Amino acid sequence: MYVIPLLGIPPQVLFGQLLLGLINGAFYAMLSLGLAVIFGLLNIINFAHGALYMMGAFVAWLMLEYLGIGYWPALILSPLLVGAFGVLLEKAFLHRIYKLDHLYGLLLTFGMALIIEGLFRNYYGVSGQAYDAVPDLLKGGFNLGFMFLPIYRGWVVVASLIICFGTWFAIERTKLGSYLRAATENPKLVQAFGINVPRMITLTYGFGVALAAMAGVLAAPIYHVSPLMGSDIIIVVFAVVVIGGMGSIVGAVVSGFGLGLIEGMTKVFYPEASNTVIFVVMAIVLLVKPAGLFGKAA
Amino acid sequence: MRLQGISALLAATALASGFAMPASAETIKLGVLNDQSGVYTDLSGPGGVDAVRMAVEDAGGAINGNKIEIVSADHQNKPDIGTSIARQWYDQDHVDAIFDVPNSGVALAVQEVAREKHKIVIFSGPAASDLTGAKCSPVGVHWTYDTYGLAKGTGAAVTKSGGDSWFFLTADYAFGQALERDTAAVVTANGGKVLGEVRTPLASPDFSSFLLQAQASKAKIIGLANAGGDTITSIKQASEFGISSGGQKLAGLLVFLSDVNSLGLKTAQGLELTASFYWDLNDQTRAFSKRYFERNKKEPTMVQAGLYGAAKHYLEAVKSAGSTDADKVMAAMRANPVNDFMTKDGKVREDGKVVRDMYLFEVKKPEESKAPWDYYKLIRQIPAAEVTRPVEESACPLLKKG
């Protein structure tokens, strides 16, 4: 194969890294999407998002281990179960603090994250569990010439794009979505039209949580199913949401994929900085556009 | 990046005070300082604290009528938290000796606190050979294993069996760099060469990018100079990206039993590794491990087993010295031979290194494993002289005098 050096990096390495960046970006996009939905519609900074993502992966693993339920059913069941758990959390705790400052929501959800993570760590240790339930359809990989692409990783990108587009469409282009958006602007007025706003908000939180859990199930075969997997990724995801603009769905998705790519490039040129680069970008974006790339100025 | 990072900032100052207990001069107090929530929890963590507790129980809970107490804390893999707890323990809580301290970054920082306070610290969890090299201390003991021994074990075995070109995935802190340095020296000494390395941040969730760089290097061996969760992730993702089907082999330079347990034999089979302890090695190791298993529902790692031996040796030294004074206890620890279920006639050298044999193991194939936790087969016992840095190569000033 003929190799043209580009910036001293052979193109097959460069293409490979771009593709890997895209795959990691797919996870960032899915997670920041859930956060953006929750913040946009509930005004809650959901710090428990990482823990719920971890829970999604763990529920899939538990279903396989104890009930023999495979990957495809888990991809639906786990988000439903964890989403229901999210509804419970909202009913029990979150709905009491909507009127308070953001800080209280942040502290509450951060506390919940520590409790959930601690419980799983206590029972399952930190080394993690292997989740070997990838269906045959998604096993193996393609040799693309410049790299070996595991089919499963390709599937993650596709699934993420479908989920992101579906969520955007539901909120921006459907009637239900318009109610939701109206309810965040003026809940009293929307309620006067006979719409049950508190229930709608509860379900929205459940939906955001289910998105996190679904990302968790998708991540389970790639990353180890470990109680720490959520906290490993959540800080990055928050940076992604801030860069995209708090509460902006398009912003969350675009910056998720974009930052995955930037991070991938950093891993080639200066790997030591690969877990810092996103925060550097965040600082720059906040200096230039304090509301984030797609955020509405307050 | 960890969630605890945020709470750490808030907790750093407040944390240590919670462990304060009124201590009379007659109490012998051991502090176990390790990772109780992060990537190294399973290989030391609460299990390590329990191993020390077992040693205290076996000593009868008291020496010459002086009660033995144990305190423990989580350093969260942060040197600043580790040193502030160590200071608190030595200064205010009358802790006589600190044990474990996995994570070489934290260990090197705690070594300096112990040196300054002139109190004993006995390392089981950390690996960096600098602890008994340039950074050696008259009150520091490196108990279980070090990067020099790992390099001499796995590094030499892999290079000699034909793996003569290496690319390193190196955890980007003191430990990874020490392991890479010591292994690269062994590889070169055995006629191999090092083609490159990539420094990976601790606890990266995704190693595929680094693995692809290793693949592009065309090196025969990809050396994993990392530990715990990082090793698990890199081995798992290497199999996902078909690294071994491309003809490259992985060499896990530090692999713990807890890592193999988490990976499963299907993924981990065939890995060669160096360790100072395995539960199923002989009757004595099995006897200790059976007791440990009943209490912890897991087989002990070498770090946890080493902690038992370290605490036992320390307590015996306190007994024979008739004092908890650091100099007297250190002298007794050096004078007494180390004998327990995992060490035969070991010795605490002047630089603090415990001189003992190590073992080269291979991870079994799934069909070879007869029972839960039946993971390793012994390839060879490596004599202490081979896995201990010779005095003339050491940068430790304590070995130079006289």
Q: State the shape of chain A.
A: globular
Alpha-beta content class of chain B: alpha/beta
- CA(first)-CA(last) distance of chain A: 53 Å
The mean pLDDT of chain A is 89
Arithmetic mean of pLDDT of chain B:
91
Widest sheet of chain B: strand order? 2-3-1-4-5-6
Question: Which parts of chain B are unreliable, with pLDDT below 50 for 5 consecutive residues or more?
Answer: 7-24
Radius of gyration of chain A: 20 Å
Structural class of chain A: mainly alpha
Strand content of chain A: under 5%
Per DSSP, the total helix count of chain B is 14
Number of helices of chain A: 11
Q: How do the SSEs of chain A run, as a string of H and E?
A: HHHHEEHHHHHHH
Largest sheet of chain B, if any? 6 strands, mixed
Our measurement of the CA-to-CA distance between the termini of chain B, rounded to an integer number of angstroms, reads 47 Å
